[in-house]
Specification:
Two copies of one chain form a homodimer. Chain A is α+β, with helices and mostly antiparallel strands. In chain A, 40% of the residues lie in helices and 22% in strands. Chain A has helices at 2-7, 14-23, 32-39, 48-60, 105-114, 132-141, and strands spanning 65-68, 73-76, 82-87, 93-97, 119-130. In chain A, the strands form two sheets. A three-stranded mixed sheet of chain A has the order 4-3-5. Chain A has a two-stranded antiparallel ribbon with strand order 1-2. In chain A, strand 3 and strand 4 form a beta hairpin. The first copy, chain A, is flat, with a radius of gyration of 18 Å. The mean pLDDT of chain A is 94. The A-B interface holds A 68-70, 85, 87-88, 94-97, 103, 107, 110-111, 114-133, 135 and B 68-70, 85, 87-88, 94-97, 103, 107, 110-111, 114-133, 135-136. Strand 5 of chain A pairs antiparallel with strand 5 (119-130) of chain B. Chain A binds a DNA duplex through helix 4.
DNA sequence: CTTGCAGTTTAGAACCATTCTACTTACGGT
DNA sequence: ACCGTAAGTAGAATGGTTCTAAACTGCAAG
């Protein structure tokens, strides 16, 4: 990811390197707040704007994505096509591999009927339910 | 919807009646701000909290849903199973009818593989692309 | 019809996430 | 080493949502 950052013509500042190190490979879909807090010890003077600027730059370079499920935006370093499974109870988000986000021809046909003229680019899915841990807790609670 | 409100054991206040009147059947997926502004002329003293409280009550009674696509939450009075098509350009959201939000057996099988233990309840889809109007504009712009 | 009270509304403050601003700093090409 | 400019900083500003404490009001029971 660092290599890609450089390749995208972005300057390699210590802050960016630290953010990327913290972010790349993180599957917890952290918020800006999360990343900011984790970097506090190393960069006590870092500003929120830097976290947002860097995440925006990564997104603009196609190196990361964003996800909105609650009040706060969650950032996602996984650039492979994938969907998300969200736990109704704890709110944790898991990645679900997908072959592709491109609409299937069946989806295109359906949209032609229900939303004529809409030009689909991608189809995202959110699976809602209970994650493994919370499913167990629910059983225990009864 | 008003009947359902009463049936859900909620008090019929003038504010709630006005909100429901404004909201029911609205396919624009309004934000709290939108509804608040539309009700200003009729209820100049109404508070934001009332709009949120009422929308929360409706959601709790299963009479409406919520959707998070940008900074602001959008509310959705359509309780039929459906997905959403979001325009990349103008941000407008259209409903796409769906037979059901229950996971297909294929989806359940896939999740068993990629997220073992996750207990799916519903599958929501977001179709991203350009709406009919914006598609036209894009063509015109070239 | 009156009463009581739990559920509602209100204004405004508080809170959180995000963006903006004006300024300083420092990466990286020459 | 120098310079231009991209990036970082602190803090204020903005926008959305929730909270609080006090006043009000449907509505069920008398």
């Amino acid at each position: 990811m660092l290599r890609d950052l450089k390749h995208a013509g972005l300057k390699m500042t210590p802050q960016r390197i630290a953010i990327v190190r913290q972010f790349a490979g993180d599957e917890s879909h952290p918020t800006a707040q999360d990343l900011f807090e984790r970097l506090q010890p190393e960069f006590p003077t870092m500003s929120f704007a830097t976290v947002y600027n860097t995440l925006d730059a990564l997104a603009a370079a196609g190196l990361s994505g964003m996800l909105r499920l609650g009040n706060a935006a969650r950032f996602d370093p996984n650039t492979d096509a994938h969907h998300h499974a969200v736990c109704d109870d704890c709110g944790n988000v898991h990645d679900i591999a997908a072959a592709s986000l491109s609409p299937t021809s069946a989806a295109v046909r359906k949209l032609r009927r229900t939303a004529p003229g809409f030009n689909v680019r991608a189809v995202e899915r959110v699976y809602r339910g209970l994650c493994a841990d919370c499913s167990k807790k629910m059983v225990a609670r009864v």
